[in-house]
Amino acid sequence: MLWWDLAFTVIRTFLIFFIALNLVPGLIWMERRVLAEFQMRVGPNRVGPFGLLQPIADAVKLMMKEDITPAGVDKPIYYLAPVLALLPAVMALAVIPFGPSSWSQIADIPNSLLYSLAISGLSVYAVAMAGWSSNNKYSLLGGLRASAQMISYELGMGLAIIVILLGTGSTSLSEIVELQAKHGWNIIGGGNLFLIPSMLIACLTYFTCGVAETNRAPFDMAEAESELTAGFHTEYSSFKFAMFFLSEYVNMLIIAALATTLFLGGWSGPFINGADGYSIGETLLGVAYFLAKVFFFIFVYIWLRASLPRFRYDQLMNFGWKFLVPLGLANIFLVAMAIMLNGWK
Fold it and tell me: How far apart are CA 126 and CA 131, in angstroms?
């Protein structure tokens, strides 16, 4: 029985990682097509039907490029940085409940939310190491910017998540989703009308900080082409650059998946009750609900990139420390008062 459980876990792990990583080419294609629509362009339309094979063609091109190592780099750290960028992002996928059944989640641990946040936070080390080890002033500036930015916005993100923890009393992502399936999504107060404004504020704060955490526009200060050439990955090429590129999209998936799990009910939706256990049909329907919500957040990512100009660095830091942090603290106070007076559910 032990061997069967181990084999089932390995198969499930491989399957979930394979599907998640293969979503990345779809995200790249989606971003290019949506940006083209926003900018009234055609977008990718040559390689494959509707340009669907364009991300694969780009990946093959990256693999065929010459792998250049500049003179003067700190080689151990220079080579370790891309690995450290991708590995934590993939590891964070392990605790995300993609569906209601146990096979749709690799590991269900009691503190899965804390684990996911801690693992995702390691990506700042990859950016800082890449910038410092490249022996390039633009890379170093990009690494320093990213370090300050990611640390600053992690605080705002944590304050937004505390709002969820106050009500649910759990750090298990599975339990948080189950509570929403019973009482209603957290973004609409989790069954408590008094909490709807606070939940909306927490959701917007979390997602804004998530965009900054992943160095996406309008918070892409770490790789600002007009100022820093390409920022922390200026000196990276071929497969090493591809690993940074891949990690960015996987981190976007993580932020979108956590936002879905914490605020939009995760896999919960119509026709999923689980009164007598979850059938295969309910599980597949739950996975479909989850992916639809995740792609909604990905669309918002792209929408922001198409609509907003890049912040100045002082504006970026002021927005984090002088607006989001005070807003998060005030929101925690309001939620605590609402729970004390009215209860969560």
Answer: 9
Bridge partners of residue 11, in order along the sequence: none
Full-model pTM: 0.91
Query: Cis peptide leading into 270, omega within 30 of 0?
Result: no
pLDDT (tens digit, 9 = 90+) per residue, 47-77? 888 898 998 998 888 888 888 888 888 889 8
How confident is residue 277, by pLDDT bands cut at 50, 70 and 90?
Answer: low
- Rounded Cα gap, residues 264 and 258, in angstroms: 9
C-alpha to C-alpha distance for 195 and 184, rounded to whole angstroms:
12
Question: What is the spatial distance between Cα 34 and Cα 46, in angstroms, rounded to a whole number?
Answer: 16
Tokens at 82, concatenated? 């891309």
Residue whose structure tokens are 């007009």: 226
Q: What whole-number distance in Å separates Cα of residue 173 and Cα of residue 261?
A: 7
- 100 phi, psi to nearest 5 deg: -75, -25
For the chain, the average pLDDT equals 85
Taking the C-alpha atoms of residue 317 and residue 315, their distance in angstroms, rounded to an integer, is: 6
Q: How many CB atoms lie within 10 A of CB 11?
A: 11
Alpha helices (H) in 134-195, listed in sequence order? 137-168, 173-183
Rounded to whole angstroms, the Cα distance separating 170 from 188 reads 19
Report the residue count for the chain: 345
Burial 322-334 (b: 16+ CB within 10 A, else e): eebbebbeebbeb
Residue 97 CA to residue 107 CA, distance in Å, equals: 9
